[in-house]
């Protein structure tokens, strides 16, 4: 579904990504792992269009999207969540989801959220979709709560809900599990699996917890120091000496901790 071909990213004198090529297969849940500073978030930014690569191409379902803006990629079915949730903290959970369904640039937010009395058919459909998504994510009890008042884990669920509102083909999840409690983490994994199995939604996720990755991902990409170190099943990469070295130190790929 997504293919990176020979991607390089330079930040001033720092090469954050060095000739990286990989595929994120359609219908799969692919993990992107690696020590701190490996280039994982930068790779997501390249896929989403937030960072322009110095070299290389990004393909989405075979189409070269390297020159497209983030909202154009979103229109084609690419969604992402952020390490730090991007919710509108003064809007309620319901309003946050409805706002996410409008133009990715946010230009319709006020129409959709604040003119509820003059609902047209389109707004009604957005409202129903938001309610259905909230139900699916089991957020009904906080539906009218301001997003800024939610727990860290609930904000992550809202973040996933906002991504789902645009009916994406693929969602990039950037450390969606970080800092949330075990119960919510498990619920989140169930929701991701259900979306993948029942709706065929493709995921690529950055995650530091390898047990979590092994629960969800059939295929794992390992990055270290801006390069693709290896890829394969979780068990295979876990036992790969280069991966162990990258995480636990020594040699070229010493982890940046
Ligand atoms: N906007 C930026 N400007 C300058 N350097 C950057 C920028 N973004 C990332 N970097 C650098 O690029 C390298 C890769 O960073 P990146 O955030 O992609 O790593 P990561 O694998 O996601 O790390 P982590 O697991 O800690 O989030 C790091 O050395 C980082 O300091």
UniProtKB/TrEMBL annotation:
Record carries keyword Nucleotide-binding: yes
UniProt domain ABC transporter: residue ranges: 2-250
GO molecular function annotations of the record: ATP binding
Pfam family, one: BCA_ABC_TP_C
Keywords: ATP-binding, Nucleotide-binding, Transport
Signal peptide start and end residues: none
Family membership: Belongs to the ABC transporter superfamily.
Record protein name field: ABC transporter ATP-binding protein
Naturally occurring in which organism (per UniProt): Hoeflea poritis
